[in-house]
Amino acid sequence: MRIANLGGRAVVITEAGAIDVERASDGRFGPDPQDLVEAWAEFSAWAGDALSEFQERIAFEAELLSAPVPRPRQVFAIGLNYAEHAAEAGYPPDSMPVTFTKFPSSIVGADTVVALPEGNVDWEVELVVVIGREGYKLDRESAWDHVAGLTIGQDISERITQMQGSAPQFSLGKSFPGFGPTGPWLVTPDEFANKDDLAIACSLSGEGMQSSRTSMMLYDVPELLVRLSAVCRLLPGDIIFSGTPSGIGNRRIPQRFIGPDDVLVSEIEGIGTLTTRFTAGD
Questions:
Q1: pTM
Q2: pLDDT digits (tens, 9 = 90+) for 166-202
Q3: How many domains is the chain built from?
Q4: CB 3.0 to 4.6 Å from 245: which of 59, 212, 263, 270, for a disulfide?
Q5: What is the domain range of residue 128?
Q6: Does residue 268 lie within any of the structural domains?
């Protein structure tokens, strides 16, 4: 399934259009996309046969899709999870991934226009994992059972704020308004031929910037869930930005940062495309 947020309502995307979940379930599930993900176990058990029997479809424009998980209770973000990116950042390839957060107020959907703050604004395309079932101290064998689906994310970062002070301010530098684009929809794991090996790439105003595969992650999705859940109880609706490949702007020679009128296009195999546009801030 592909679950989306269409104008604030939870829908299932099909080739013929969108199915409104509240209408299809006769009110069993409400319209709020966040509530739907937090009731994922019940919804996924109901959805298969019931949705196929519901005939009403809604035509829609992709520009109307908002963040598929609009108000996550916990947002985890992982740094240094691809060997080439760790190397370009000056870390050994076996470095432990850095874990931080992006505050939930930064989470937005596809086709968002982001007003640039002062500083050096950078891009990081990432596979985003959405939790569908609560878990604590998970093992690798059962980790994927706790995943509702996957989507595309951009961990946008203002590097000056991020590196201020004697201890870096990762979470603040990555949480300006609009700095967490996600979408265009949530794709359930059963939709992928190989969910552990997906092509991932992004371009800035038509110039290719990053290109890799998720199989190149140092810590794959099950391992990330094991490590995070060893400390934190993972809750339905939580999201995890799983790290970015090499090719970010502050490691280029010369450096390249996002400017007004730039368009950032992120792609992940089997999910689709996430577009973010930028404008000058106040």
A1: 0.95
A2: 767 889 999 999 999 999 999 999 999 999 999 999 9
A3: 2
A4: 212
A5: 75-280
A6: yes
Q: Is residue 23 classed as helix, strand or coil in its secondary structure?
A: helix
Report which of 9, 7, 8, 14 is spatially closest to residue 25, judged by C-alpha positions.
9
State how far the Cα of 73 lies from the Cα of 228, in Å rounded to an integer.
15
Same domain, 112 and 190: yes
Is the same domain home to 167 and 47? no
Distances 7 to 33, 70, 83, 278 between C-alpha atoms, Å: 10, 11, 39, 21
Q: How far apart are CA 58 and CA 47, in angstroms?
A: 18
90 and 190 inside one domain: yes
Q: Which stretches of the chain are DSSP H helices?
A: 21-24, 33-38, 40-53, 83-88, 140-143, 159-162, 170-173, 221-229
The token pair that represents 241 in the structure block: 């930005």
Query: Do residues 136 and 236 touch, judged by C-beta distance below 8 A?
Result: no
pLDDT tens for residues 99-108? Answer: 999 999 999 9
Q: Is residue 69 part of a domain?
A: no
> CA distances (Å), 274 to each of 1, 29, 120, 197, 203, in order?
18, 27, 21, 19, 11
